[in-house]
Amino acid sequence: MQGLVSDKTFHLKWNNHLQNLSQLFTTIYSSSALADVTLSCRDGTLKAHKLVLSACSPYFEQIFKDNPCQHPIVILKGIPFSEINLLVEFMYKGSVDVQELDLQSLMHTASELEIRGLAYEARDNAAQLLNVNLEYPAYGQNATSTPTAATSATVSTSQTYPQARTDVERLKQVS
């Protein structure tokens, strides 16, 4: 029987694959194990994984493609650490608890960073709740968030964050 060629194929499936990946993401988020990028913001730094950030954000994906460093430092000017921390937690876990006071600001930052699952969907939902019509550029075409390389290992977003807060201020005035 040795040397016989078989046309049979077998489909192998790991039944709880997604559950295991979800648990793994939670574990590596909590421990920063194998982190390969540092996010630096106004009042702190956070270690993360390029793969996770890229999968959850076309913005980060483009930064890492344009700057193929082993361990880049992405500088997010003007964005508070508390917001970056919540957004990264959302990317790893798929959910996050946010105080009502911080929700609008967080959603705008999510839109600036093009975070899937939060970006424009969240803004639209908030606008509907407050009966406000928000205008914003098409998905992925935000000119204020263009990444520029500062050094071979550091990336700066050159983000004009106060300008990104315009809609937040408008929402606050209406509510």
Q: How many domains make up the 3D coordinates?
A: 1
Order of strands across the widest beta sheet?
2-1-3-5-4
Secondary structure category: alpha/beta
H/E series: HEEHHEHHHEEHH
Distance between the termini: 78 Å
> Radius of gyration in whole Å, from Cα?
20 Å
Tally of strands: 5
Q: Number of helical segments?
A: 8
Describe the largest sheet.
5 strands, mixed
Helix content: 40-55%
- From the 3D structure, determine the CATH topology: Potassium Channel Kv1.1, Chain A
Unreliable runs, pLDDT <50, ≥5 residues?
132-175
What fraction of the residues are assigned to beta strands by DSSP?
5-15%
Instruction: Identify the CATH architecture.
Output: 2-Layer Sandwich
- What is the arithmetic mean of pLDDT? 76
Structure, described:
Pfam families: BTB. This is BTB domain-containing protein. One of its GO terms (biological process) is regulation of transcription by RNA polymerase II. Residues 35-100 form the BTB domain. The structure is a single chain. The protein is an alpha/beta fold and 175 residues long. The chain has one domain (17-174): 2-Layer Sandwich (Potassium Channel Kv1.1, Chain A), CATH 3.30.710.10. 47% of the residues lie in helices and 11% in strands. It has eight helices and five strands, in the order αββααβαααββαα. It has helices at residues 17-31, 50-56, 58-66, 81-93, 100-112, 119-130, 161-164, 166-174, and strands at residues 37-41, 44-48, 73-76, 148-149, 154-156. Strands 2-1-3-5-4 form a five-stranded mixed β-sheet. It is elongated, with a radius of gyration of 20 Å. 28% of the residues are buried. The model is unreliable at 132-175 (pLDDT under 50).
